[in-house]
Amino acid sequence: MRPSNLFASLWASATALPASSPVDSAATDTVLVSLSGQLDSDLPTSWHWTSTGPLVGPKDDGRQIAGIKDPTVILINGTHHVFASTAQSSGYNLVYFTFNDRAGASNATFHYLDQAPLGTGYRAAPQVFWFEPHKLWYLVYQNGNAAYSTNPDIHNPRSWTAPKVFYPDGMPKIIEQNIGDGYWVDMWVICDSASCHLFSSDDNGQLYRSQTSLGQFPNGMSQPVIAMQDNRNDLFEAACVYSLPGGKYLLLVEAIGSDGHRWFRSWTAESISGPWQGLANTEQNPWARSNNVQFEGDNVWTKSISHGEIIRDRSVDEKMLIDPCNIRFMYQGMDPSAGGEYNALPWRLGFITHNNPGC
């Protein structure tokens, strides 16, 4: 058992931004840190994590929300900015909240984005990033299509614009042909110096990728191609792609394990378009699964390590650059004994922390 005071010290060191980090003091208050410190971009082939308990769940505020899930998170000047799905029997929408450290996470004020021009109705699985060419925050999410809203100030949750979509003609034909009885979900954008790429999944074993030029974004998305294919449980949903110092890329995809619980597989590539080479992608050697996560205080509050995101604290822009020596992942988990209607499952949010022995 890892002592709790050791876990607390690891957390404190992970959340501290370097004192020399340059800060944009404009309204966006964005931290855009150059990773010039010769970080090792090689990732381990075997992963081991320590998890917090559940930190954020629904509030008793009359909304009757059953679960908080699908987090996207960035860290700016010591403050975590989190967008997540609110789930209940009647459907999904989005919530925004901030906190400085895990002790304050459960008390964070919820700002429900159905009060913004982003609007009511089905919105889920957000991704947030600062798009440097436009000097705007983008929030990408699913609404039956691949949608986005923008905002010049991340601190103002009422300023998110009404949804626009990446595919004005609706679901692309290749997805219609392969989706079967799945769902088109979990849109993710990452850009390099020339292009922006949009990933999505169909809950039926296909991972799709479209692209447009950096100058055209968010318009001009190409028809998707199949970026990866497997059986549906092994390549299910919640894909996210990150860039690493040195030019490599890391792909994570959520799977459904042989025990019915969720976990993450991982791959790397030299290009956003692939080809992708397996990193830690089996149940015996997973990227993140219950068999390689040690829970703080041995409180195994979840058997699923499900839909989440690596905390971006070095750079929050469209390139999705992460520090391979400081990987923390905000994820959704729930009581293993819970069951019932999918939309009403009691998902909660926690963190897992990994220390790269190669660093």
Automatic annotation (TrEMBL):
Keywords assigned by UniProt, alphabetized: Glycosidase, Hydrolase, Secreted, Signal
| A biological-process GO annotation | xylan catabolic process
Q: Which GO terms describe its molecular function?
A: alpha-L-arabinofuranosidase activity
Entry EC number(s): 3.2.1.55
**Signal peptide stretch:** 1-16
Note one Pfam family from the annotation: Glyco_hydro_62
Q: Does the keyword Signal apply?
A: yes
User: What reaction(s) does this enzyme catalyze?
Assistant: Hydrolysis of terminal non-reducing alpha-L-arabinofuranoside residues in alpha-L-arabinosides
Name its cellular compartments. Answer: Secreted
| Origin: domain of life | Eukaryota
Q: What is its main location?
A: secreted
Record's Gene Ontology CC terms? extracellular region
The answer to whether UniProt assigns keyword Ribonucleoprotein to this entry is: no
Functional description taken from the UniProt entry: Alpha-L-arabinofuranosidase involved in the hydrolysis of xylan, a major structural heterogeneous polysaccharide found in plant biomass representing the second most abundant polysaccharide in the biosphere, after cellulose.
Q: Which PANTHER family match?
A: ALPHA-L-ARABINOFURANOSIDASE, ALPHA-L-ARABINOFURANOSIDASE AXHA-2-RELATED
What family does the database annotate? Belongs to the glycosyl hydrolase 62 family.
Q: What is this protein called?
A: Alpha-L-arabinofuranosidase
Origin species: Triangularia setosa
